[in-house]
Amino acid sequence: MRTQVAIIGAGPAGLLLSHLLAQGGVDSVVLETRSEEYVAARIRAGILEHSSVELLESVGLGARLRAEGDEHRGIYLQWPGERHQLDFVDLTGRSVWVYGQTEVQKDLIAARKKAGQEIHYEVTDVALHDIEDSPYVTYADKNGQSVKLDAAVIAGCDGSFGPSRAAVPAAKAFERVYPYSWFGILADVAPSTDELIYAWHPDGFALHSMRSATVSRLYLQVPNGTDPQSWSDDQIWDALATRLGHGQNGWKLHPGPITDKSVLPMRSYVQTPMRHGNLFLAGDAAHIVPPTGAKGLNLAIADVALLSRALVARFRENDPRLADAYSETAQRRVWRCTHFSWWMTTMLHTSGDPFDAELQLSQLRWVASSEAGATGLAENYAGLPIFL
Ligand code: FAD
Ligand code: DHB
Fold it and tell me: Residue 15: nearest ligand to its CA?
C-alpha cells in the first residue's frame, strides 16, 4: 500500500491533519490501535480557544460546534471569600467555546468517513522504518495480516505512548512532574455557574467546568496515586462545595448523579526537535501540558494547522521551506503554552508550603485586580492566532 502521508494515531491531531491535507489535495492513510467506538467516547478536554474555533469553522467542521457548543466570555478566579470575573472579550476581544473533545472527535470521524478517508482501526505492532530515505510503516491489521505502508512522509500523531516520539534519534526532552493529580467527574446536573470557576483553596485546587446545559464536569486536586473508587460521591460533592465556595455570597453548588470518575496525573513534557527526516511529530506525541488552562487539545490543533500547510506546500508546490521551519515554528507556541499551563498550575494548586500559599494568593489578587495582570491571563487563555 502507498500514500503520501502515513498518519499514526486517530486522535484529534491525526484526524484533523488528514482532513486538512485532503482539503489541500494531499492523500493520507490513518492507523489507530483502538476501535472507532473507543476513540469517539474518550472523555478529555472541554475548551476550544478562539483560533481553534475559527480554524474548525473555516474547514467545514463548525456547524455542530456553533449549534451545540457554548461561547464563554471569560472565567471566574476564586479563593476563600472572593470570586472575580475575568472578561476575555473586554480584555482581548477573544472568547473561548465549551465543546467537548469527544464532540470534536465525533465531528472529525464523520467528516473523514463522508470523504471516504481510509482509517484503519485496531491495528497492532505499528513500527516506523527508514525515516530518512524511503519511509514506510509496518503493522498488523485487525485480522492479524501484516501490512507495509509506503509513504513520502510519516506524521506521528500517536500521543504520549505511541512509537513515533522514540523514532526521533538524539531528541532532547524537557520534563516536570507535579506532586498532585486531577480527580475528574462528569455529572448529570445543570452547571451551577455561567462561566468556569478556577478555585484556589487550602485543601487544594478545584475547577467547575461543564459540557452542556445538563452535564457538569468538575475537578479536584488530589494526591498522586489516588484511587477514584476510594472517594464516595458524597465526599466528592462535599470537597467540591468547600473548595468552590458553596454559601459564599449566596452561591450554591448543586450536586447530581456522577456518571464518570477518573484520576489524571499531571506533567509538562516537551520533546525537540519535532521533525526527523521525513517524520513529523504533532500534538501529545511531541508535548504534554498539565490541564490547568486547557491547552492540550488546542496545541494539537495548532500543530496540525502548521504541519498541513507545510506538507501541502511541499507536495503541491515542491516548496520545502515551511516543512523545514515546522519544528521551530511549532515550538514557539509549544513553549508559550507550556509556560502558561505551568504558571496556572503552580498559581492554583496547593503544595502545603505556607510561603508558597501567600505568594499564590498575592499573585491571584494581582491578576484579578490589575488590568495588565488580567489581560496577560486572558491573552494566553483565549489563545494566540495560529499563524503569527
Ligand atoms: P491523543 O488524543 O492521545 O491521540 C493519539 C492517538 O494515537 C490515540 O487515539 C491513540 O490510541 C493512538 N495511538 C497510540 N499508539 C498508537 C500506535 N502505536 N499506533 C497507532 N495509533 C496509536 N487537555 C486539556 O486541555 N484539558 C483536559 O481536561 C484534558 N484532559 C485530559 C484527560 C486525559 C485522560 C488525557 C489523556 C488527556 C487530557 N487532555 C486534556 C489532553 C488532551 O486531551 C490532549 O492534549 C489531546 O488529546 C491531544 O491530541 P492528540 O491527537 O495529539 O493525542
Ligand atoms: C476543562 C479542562 C481543563 O483542563 C480546563 O482548564 C478547563 C476545562 C474541561 O474538561 O472542561
Answer: 1
Point out the ligand 2 atom lying closest to the alpha carbon of residue 184.
10
DSSP 150: E
- CA 12 to ligand 2 center in whole angstroms: 16
Q: What are phi and psi of 85, to 5 degrees?
A: -90, 135
235, three cell numbers: 465526599
Neighbours of 193 (CB within 10 A): 17
pLDDT digits (tens, 9 = 90+) for 96-125: 999 999 999 999 999 999 999 989 999 999
Q: Which residues line ligand 2 (CB under 6 A)?
A: 45-47, 196, 207, 209, 217, 291-294
pTM, two decimals, is: 0.97
CB-CB neighbours of 372 under 10 Å: 8
Query: Per residue in 8-51, pLDDT tens?
Result: 999 999 999 999 999 999 999 999 999 999 999 998 999 999 99
d(CA 3, CA 150): 6
CA-based nearest residue to 96, from 294, 386, 303: 294
Question: Using CA atoms in the order 325, 329, 334, 337, what is the torsion angle rounded to 10 degrees?
Answer: 180
* Cα 332 to ligand 2 centre (Å): 23
Q: Is 159 in the pocket of ligand 1 (CB under 6 A)?
A: yes
